[in-house]
Every structure is written in structure tokens, then in C-alpha cells.
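FAQ

Q: What does a record look like?
A: Structure on top, sequence underneath. For example:
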């Protein structure tokens, strides 16, 4: 194997916006993330349906007509 070809794989700290700190290894180094498995709605079971600009209401009105 050629020397100097692969990046350095060093210890890294990943910090979430919720305050969770995870120690791992990475070629990237230390970095922060917005959402982790401790605060993501899918993993915590607190998933909410967010209505962005009335899209959910518009979808429900559109397909409510088709039911009847």
C-alpha cells in the first residue's frame, strides 16, 4: 500500500445543538450538528406534523373532496 495516500483518521468530537457530545473518530475532525439521535423527532417518538405555509391544510382540502 502506498504511504501518504489515505487521510489521517483521528479522534473527533461531535457536538449537537441540544448539548449532546459524542466522541468518535473521523477524517474531518471536530464539528457540530443541528440534530442528533437524542433530539430527532423520529427517534424520540415526539414527531409533529409541521404545517409550512398552509400546505397541509391545502392538501387535506384537496383530497377531502375526493372522498365523498
Amino acid at each position: 500500500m502506498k504511504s501518504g495516500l489515505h487521510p489521517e483518521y483521528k479522534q473527533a468530537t461531535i457536538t449537537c445543538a441540544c448539548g449532546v457530545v459524542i466522541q468518535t473518530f473521523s477524517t474531518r475532525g471536530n464539528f457540530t450538528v443541528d440534530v442528533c439521535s437524542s433530539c430527532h423527532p423520529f427517534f424520540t417518538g415526539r414527531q409533529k406534523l409541521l404545517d409550512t405555509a398552509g400546505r397541509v391544510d391545502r392538501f387535506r382540502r384537496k383530497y377531502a373532496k375526493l372522498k365523498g
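Q: Is there anything notable about this one?
A: The chain has a mean pLDDT of 82.
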